[in-house]
Amino acid sequence: MEDGRIFISSVDFRHETMYNSIRKEEKSGSEKNFSAIGVSSERTAYAMKKAEAGKDRNGKRRNARMSEITAITPQVKDKTRCNVYLDGRFYCGLTLETAMKYRLKAGMIADEKRLDEIQSESEKNVALDKALTHISACSKTEKDVRSFLRKKGYLSGVEDYVIGKMRSYGFIDDKAYAKTYALSAMKKKGRRLIEYELRGKGISEEEIAAAFSEIEEERESGEETADEYGAAQAIAEKFMRGKATKECDPEAHKTALAALYRRLASRGFDGETIKEIVAQYRGGYDEY
Predict the structure, then answer these.
(1) CA torsion, ordered 94, 95, 97, 103, to nearest 10 deg
(2) What long-range pairs does 254-259 form, CB within 8 A, spacing at least 24?
(3) What distance in Å separates the CA atoms of residue 182 and residue 224, rounded to the nearest whole number?
(4) Which residues contact 84 (CB under 8 A, 6 or more apart)?
(5) Does the pTM exceed 0.70?
């Protein structure tokens, strides 16, 4: 336990040392950039730095988006990483080692494309490891994984690399996810609501349709799968338990049937299924 505390303390000290080094370079860089022209000329200096950074070795202008690194701050939940801000807005996250390796500091004029390349070259495998850990507890959709990586500060190039790898390994399969989710949800919900929820998880219409098609094929072949009509019946039976009967109190019974209709509709069951279930308790198919 004591060794563990010493180790954690040494790691924290190393990260603090890295940040101090970055801050020291930021300060010296600012003094170097502005000592000759004075504080009142900072805007002019920034424009000159940006113009020079946008030229190649022959002095010709490059087709690149140049921005100033305005801050490099530690991430709250991961002390091994930092956030990089360009022109006052968050741009990406990097490991401390990467920031140190490429000598990134506030006040530097950076090519956004080059920052993308730096993150892709240095951190795509780290991002893959984090994504695999993220899905270890339960399966995730592609949208879930992309959202996770984006919150970590990874750019689209790294996202695409990670998603491609995870697809090739079979760790991301939105159609399989949709089928598993539907089979579980159909015990309590109708197809319309399930489809709505799957779309919210970023699954395409084609993959949703394919998942339900497989479920229907399995049911037709005699396999035991969730049955939407059976689920609606179970919900109705539970809902109507203890409610007034038609013979006992016709008005209260009619009110209960109307509430049952709304309950089944809110669970995503289709109109025909709801009418058939409600008719069983009414004793006919009369409309309200």
Answers:
(1) 20
(2) 254/288, 257/281, 257/282, 257/288, 258/288
(3) 14
(4) 69, 71, 72, 90, 91, 92, 93, 94, 99, 104, 115, 153
(5) no
Residue type, 171: F
Q: CB–CB of 193/199 below 8 Å?
A: no
Tokens of 55: 């030229």
- What is the C-alpha to C-alpha distance for residues 186 and 228, in angstroms, rounded to an integer? 6
For residues 254 and 251, give the distance between their C-alpha atoms in angstroms, rounded to a whole number.
5
Quote the CA–CA distance of 67 and 61 in Å, as a whole number. 15
DSSP string, 266-288: HTT--HHHHHHHHHHHHTS----
The amino acid at 38:
G
Tokens standing for residue 266: 């809110």
234 within 8 A of 241, measured Cβ to Cβ: no
Q: Which two tokens stand for residue 102?
A: 């490429």
Q: Which two tokens stand for residue 1?
A: 């336990």
Q: What is the pLDDT of residues 107-123, one digit of tens each?
A: 999 888 888 888 888 78
